[in-house]
Structure formats: structure tokens, C-alpha cells
Write a structure and sequence with these properties.
Layout lengths: L5 E4 L5 H11 L7 E4 L21 E7 L10 H15 L6 E4 L3 E4 L2 E13 L2 E11 L16 H5 L5 H16 L5 H10 L8 E4 L4 E9 L5 E5 L4 E4 L5 E2 L2
Parallel strand pairs: 1-2
Antiparallel strand pairs: 2-3, 3-7, 4-5, 5-6, 6-7, 8-9, 8-12, 9-10, 10-11
Helix pairs in contact: 2-4, 2-5
Length: 243
């Protein structure tokens, strides 16, 4: 049986674009992965660039072929990669959570960004390319990106990038095998959420308000309960945490 591709590049524009180009030429095995020391065009949610010192952090993309996964349930891919990374980071420090939809936080600071690109065929996900940036060994952040932190800044220790990558991929495939048990994944995700309890400040296009997380729908919508008891639902770009 063939092993998934495992490609290291010293520098690349984007690991996700590189992997996508390969997958457009030939089908790959689940878990085929590209990682790099430096991305010249790495990006995050909303098109934000990702600051990373060369060779200091873990930047990779991996491909999944979730057979039979309906497009309107594709958020589960975001949930399993978020849970996989959270599990690995929790081996090294406490206070790790998932900030909806899929940033990984240590306390009030961002340690990981995730960007997922789904290719849809009909009403199903044909393939998903999962791009990840984990701040591992960076000593300082100089951009105006909000509240970044690295694992080294938290613990004072340095980490082997390839070792962390292998741990994340192993944990990702553990959750991938559970795709047929979506309620288990959903419940674990909800229990892992940043600010999952109590009232917190949120903002939409019009105002800021206090609310508590009530649910996350299978589609990925965040369901909030306002102070008044009103229930409101928000898509990815319709709501923000006030940090």
C-alpha cells in the first residue's frame, strides 16, 4: 500500500496552492502533505497575511477526500483539524481552546490559524485542502497582526517542527476516521470552544453586544444567546469576538 505524499520545501508561495496544483494533475492519498520553512504568500481567514519568521514555525497543508460528505456539512473538516491541533498543543501547555470557527488560542492569544478550501462536486465535498500555520519557535512578532503568541513564548522551550507536524497529522487521521460519528466530533468541538461559558462581548456590522455561545450548527453557523434571551445565528464574516 502506498504512503501519502510527504513533501518538504525550503520556500514556497503557498503550501495549499502547491498541494492543490499537484492534486489537480493526479489524485493523491488522504493525508498527503506539504510543509515549508517559509511561505511568500501565506494567508489566513479574510485574506490576512500570516507572519512567520523563516524556519521558526510549522506551516503545512494536507489534503482530505471525505467520501460522501455533503457540502452543507463541510464544517466538520474545520472541526477535526481544530481538535487535532488542540490535542497536540495540550501536550505542551494548558489553556488551549478553539476560537470559532477555527483559530487555536492560548488564553487570549492566537497560536494557530487554519484556512480550508473545499472543492465541491454536486452536493458533496470532493476534496478539502487544509492549510495550517502554528506558531512554534518564534521569539517575537513585529507585524500589526492581533495578539499572536508562539509555543516557545509560552513554555520557554523550542520544538522540532517535523515532530509536531507528525503528531498533528496522526491526530487528524484519528478524527478523520470518526467522520461517520459527527455528533461525537460536534460535542467535543463545542466543549473546546474559546469563551464557551458566560456572557462575552461580540460585534456585528452594526454594534457590539453581550452574548453567550448557545450552539454551533452543522453548517458552521455560530448560535448566540443575547442578554435578552434572543437567539441569533451568524456566519463566518458576520460576527467577531471583541478581545
Amino acid at each position: 500500500m502506498k504512503d501519502p505524499l510527504f513533501i518538504y520545501l525550503e520556500e514556497v508561495t503557498s503550501t495549499s496552492l502547491y498541494l492543490k496544483n499537484i492534486s489537480n494533475v493526479k489524485p493523491l492519498l488522504n493525508g498527503s502533505t506539504v510543509y515549508t520553512d517559509f511561505q511568500t504568500a501565506g494567508r489566513g481567514q479574510k485574506g490576512n497575511s500570516w507572519e512567520s519568521a523563516r524556519g521558526k514555525n510549522l506551516m503545512f497543508s494536507t489534503i482530505l477526500y471525505p467520501i460522501g460528505l455533503k457540502a452543507d456539512r463541510s464544517f466538520i473538516v474545520s472541526q477535526i483539524i481544530s481538535l487535532a491541533i488542540k490535542d497536540v498543543l495540550e501536550q505542551y501547555t494548558a489553556d488551549i481552546s478553539i476560537k470559532w470557527p477555527n483559530d487555536i488560542y492560548w488564553k487570549e492569544k492566537k497560536i494557530t490559524g487554519i484556512l480550508i478550501e473545499n472543492d465541491i462536486m454536486g452536493d458533496e465535498v470532493e476534496k478539502a485542502i487544509v492549510g495550517v500555520g502554528i506558531n512554534l519557535n518564534q521569539d517575537a512578532f513585529i507585524s500589526n497582526a492581533p495578539n499572536p503568541v508562539s509555543l516557545k513564548q509560552i513554555t520557554g522551550n523550542s520544538y522540532l517542527v517535523k515532530n509536531i507536524l507528525k503528531q498533528v497529522l496522526e491526530r487528524l487521521m484519528f478524527y478523520y476516521e470518526k467522520l461517520q460519528s459527527p455528533e461525537v466530533i460536534k460535542n467535543q468541538y463545542k466543549q473546546s470552544l474559546f469563551r464557551k461559558e458566560g456572557l462575552h462581548l461580540f460585534g456585528d456590522a452594526d454594534t457590539t453586544f453581550l452574548a453567550e455561545i448557545y450552539d454551533v450548527e452543522d453548517s458552521g453557523l455560530l448560535v448566540l444567546r443575547l442578554e435578552s434571551g434572543e437567539i441569533r445565528k451568524f456566519g463566518f464574516k458576520e460576527i467577531r469576538y471583541i478581545l
